[in-house]
Predict the structure.
Amino acid sequence: MQKFSFHTHSVFSDGKNTVFEMVEQATRLGFEKIGVSDHLSVHKNIIHAPSYQETKKISHQSFDEVVDICNKHAEDIRKAEKIYGIKTYVGYEVDYFTYNGWEEEFKDFLKKIDYDYLITGNHFLMSQNGEDIFDIWRFSNYSERVSENIKVYIKRHFETLQKAVRSKLFLFLAHMDYVQKIKDYRQEDYQQEIDSVVAALKETNTASEISTKGIRKFGHFFPSESILEKLIKNDVALIISDDAHSINELGSYFDDAEQELLLLKCNKRLVV
């Protein structure tokens, strides 16, 4: 039984509880450790994203503007570890962008902050040059604003995930098929792109999560069972995540995830 979660959020981004409350809840659950992985979404044109007004607390135009607040956030996490006596890690869930120079800026930013690990889980679709972005969770509401066929954007989403994995910057990949939030998404239309992401995970020895948030939102895991089967067949390590945004979600449906991995004969788990 996995007794930790490395995909969690606090009020630093879009969570409902403080770092201290999340870490305290982890101790109540008997967790051995916990990672706090608040969102890090930095794009030079993010203020033009259609739902920016909803997400501006966690959306930033440059890495320079978040260096100090990220380091203060890390201080709080280190303090929580001392207070509650449970190993606590500083992480970030990073939206990987593809416009020219973004990755170099990101790597330079990482030299300036205190952190332990990174995960990647893209929440945006983007134009070919990466300059324009559209929030996945609202895409169906403003699809008339985009200039290309929706399938082109979704294929590019999986291509972006592949690039993120091949950067070797991330401990694991979060919610690979997050695009199922788009009503027109059909997994069978993107098998080649999904296979390419799985291949990248295998080749770079990067793990993938099985997220119980899918249970809470859709009644099934992120990613889908057929993708999980591909990951297991390709010997990709898996980690159970709750994507917890509150203390009530921490550790939710972990028993179900353990059972699913048992049924799928998963023998490789991410060790952290």
About this structure: The chain is about 35% helix and 15% strand. The radius of gyration is 18 Å. Residues 50 and 145 are 9 Å apart (CA to CA).
